[in-house]
Amino acid sequence: xxxxxxxxxxxxxxxxxxxxxxxxxxxxxxxxxxxxxxxxxxxxxxxxxxxxxxxxxxxxxxxxxxxxxxxxxxxxxxxxxxxxxxxxxxxxxxxxxxxxxxxxxxxxxxxxxxxxxxxxxxxxxxxxxxxxxxxxxxxxxxxxxxxxxxxxxxxxxxxxxxxxxxxxxxxxxxxxxxxxxxxxxxxxxxxxxxxxxxxxxxxxxxxxxxxxxxxxxxxxxxxxxxxxxxxxxxxxxxxxxxxxxxxxxxxxxxxxxxxxxxxxxxxxxxxxxxxxxxxxxxxxxxxxxxxxxxxxxxxxxxxxxxxxxxxxxxxxxxxxxxxxxxxxxxxxxxxxxxxxxxxxxxxxxxxxxxxxxxxxxxxxxxxxxxxxxxxxxxxxxxxxxxxxxxxxxxxxxxxxxxxxxxxxxxxxxxxxxxxxxxxxxxxxxxxxxxxxxxxxxxxxxxxxxxxxxxxxxxxxxxxx
Length: 464
Hints:
It is a single chain. The protein contains 22 helices and no strands. It has helices spanning about 10-15, 20-45, 50-70, 75-100, 105-130, 140-160, 165-170, 175-185, 195-215, 220-225, 230-245, 250-255, 255-260, 265-295, 295-325, 335-350, 355-365, 365-400, 400-420, 430-440, 445-450, 460. Helix 3 (about 50-70) packs antiparallel against helix 4, helix 8 (about 175-185) crosses helix 9 and helix 13 runs antiparallel to helix 16. The longest helix is centred in the C-terminal third of the chain and has 33 residues, at about 365-400. The radius of gyration is 23 Å and the shape is globular. It is found in: Membrane. GO terms for molecular function: carbohydrate:proton symporter activity. It is a multi-pass membrane protein.
């Protein structure tokens, strides 16, 4: 939206709104996403993961059409909220779908690949903004708004090809369908294969145990906050809040400002923003390979360290650039250094918390609570996004480059939280993760539990 809300033609159509109104136009999208995420839990559990994604895509497409056809501020802001609701439903459901349909040895890679594609979308948006910078008329802002529907159509079409998740099918008594999905995914359609039957029995036993233990109320929101599950809710929501409070939105929303402070033209700043998205994308590729090899905890911890260091460097370089321009610092290049370190920060974030914040909540809840638990975690993500978007302009106005140091300090505070609270889930099936958190609940430290849980996956499963 950064290129759209600065387009003269768009601003005239909106009635030249005040900056606060433009800020509301941008940030209320996050509120729509939050609402959509909270809606998802009950819908997903009742109608299925695929149906929920279809509903989300349909709402998103309606919002995209209304945004493209807008004729004033009221329609623009309402259509942004509608689009946000659809996107919020999808961001809460797609990781659940992936976690429930993926083998343990590749579950992390699959969800991280989704996050990699998020960066592709960001890159497309930056390059569209750069290309349309040279275009006059309303096509310069209507086309990007319409283009978002393209990906919604692809995802919607995909739901008619992809299967429902076997865990949802088992939970709703569709045992034969669940076996067929497992067979199609893992054993070339052989429903009698040992691997297929073993996985089906493990899923069935875990779900039956869960439903019996909770007297058939496993899928209620109340169950999320009982003594056994509330720690998982806290970990899921905390992981998403850490992602948003780690500084990513500060570097993203003010990327163009960093480039302009380096003395670059607006066109060059927009082009470098596109190049930055390529660096971001390269970073996001690493977890696809590393997540199931080094584990979630190490990526989380080293990501926080790298983000902290690069944020301090951004603030320091900006200070050096300001002092040089004022004649109180003799070495040039501070502002240019801020550009490089901003790209380095995005690389580190892409290689760590971009994917981990979406992966961890999607795999730590039991089947009956996964959709609702992940909906709360996703809502926390969008709430954090909204809060940072509202706070950042105030912080930059009052603190300047110290804003980056502040967020670096938050990364430092998050390190012990991750180290002491987050068990490792690498290589475990969703049912084994359930056992892991049960052990953690019974007075076993997360760190010890994550290092003593036995991985009993078969060699056939490990081949995926």
